[in-house]
Amino acid sequence: MDIPKYVKRIIKRDGKVIYHYRPPPKYISLGLVRRQVLTNRQSTSYKLAREFNAAIDEWKEGQLRHKNLKANAPLSMLVYQYKHSPNFKGLQEDTQADYLLYLNRVVDMFNDPPMSSLTHRQAQEYYDDLVESGVFAANKTVRIASVLFNYALDRELVSLNPFSRVKKRQTPQRKVVWSHEQVQQFLDTSYGRWEWRNIGLIFHMTYAWVQRVGDTRLLTWDSINFDNESITILQSKRKAQVHLPIEEKLMDLLRQQHKDFGFQPYIAPRVTPYKGQYLPYSSYMVSHIIKDILKEAKLPSTLRVSDLRRTGATQMVEGGVPVTSIMQVTGHVNPASLKPYLKNTLRGATEALRGRSMV
């Protein structure tokens, strides 16, 4: 068995063997690895050392690609460099995964061409083909590809952004709202199975507080004030902070949840640990499991958890809640921003006509 780099075999005075990992100071100062004692087992120590060395090798490969990147380099190398840039690392974890998924699709679609060879015409033709499968996905692909080429422009790797002038179709405004019966059926189904209970709680909090699931799935226990039964949420999109009351039924559920999961920071983590840690659900996992619950509950597959925010806003409008009060719940700073979440309904029209002074 080959000895991994930077491993030292030390024989102690009592004759026992211990393995040390001693990488060069350069990699330590970069924060890639550290000097440490491994174990007294050769196979385990070698395995650990190879994992540490893999991190060093990945960094070195990235440096090499960054240094040698030219205008005629393959598009995949631009994606690789962007992946290791501060711009990319500043994105949220879910957004990073999303970007890589779409960027790799672009690379495959164009057969990994030289990054400077793509033209506006090619980008438009690509979009026109893609949009036939869905406007939302096509627009998102072009937007993310444009981010990549703006990054390349800033570093003078290309002379134009081929996706900047793509003529996109307008995404149809979604108007779907959940009925009270659909919400209750979903909650009954999700709370009825242990493996779905925390997804049910995320759904419940999203609906009750009219928030985004991207925020509710990441909520931690320190955001709840158990004494006055309220919660403070810092919204990730607008950075607005909202302070919301917790109604009695949901408060009872959260108290029980705290008894079951209060030993770790997240209110509704994955119900089973991953590598010894209770981690929050990713957006993909939430979406995937919700589809399973919809199927089990015999609810329309067209329903989305993102529709809950629109549902809550619509219900408040129908209930006669002033727009300024709704904004204190949703976190919007401009009344016009509420428009995408509102829906014309028979009930709302009926109440409006009843309130009209008839001649």
Describe this structure in words.
The structure is a single chain. The strands form two sheets. Strands 1-2-3 form a three-stranded antiparallel beta sheet, with helices on one face. A three-stranded antiparallel beta sheet has the order 4-5-6. The chain folds into three domains: about 60 residues, no CATH class; about 80 residues, DNA polymerase, domain 1 (Orthogonal Bundle), CATH 1.10.150; about 170 residues, Orthogonal Bundle (hpI Integrase, Chain A), CATH 1.10.443. Helix content is about 50%, strand content about 5%. The longest helix is centred in the first third of the chain and has 27 residues. Strand 1 and strand 2 form a beta hairpin. The model has no long low-confidence stretch (mean pLDDT about 85). The chain has about 350 residues and is mainly alpha-helical. The protein is built from 15 helices and six strands.
Put the structure in a nutshell.
This protein is mostly helical.
CATH superfamily of the largest domain: Intergrase catalytic core
Characterize the biggest β-sheet: 3 strands, antiparallel
Cα gyration radius (Å): 26 Å
Number of strands: 6
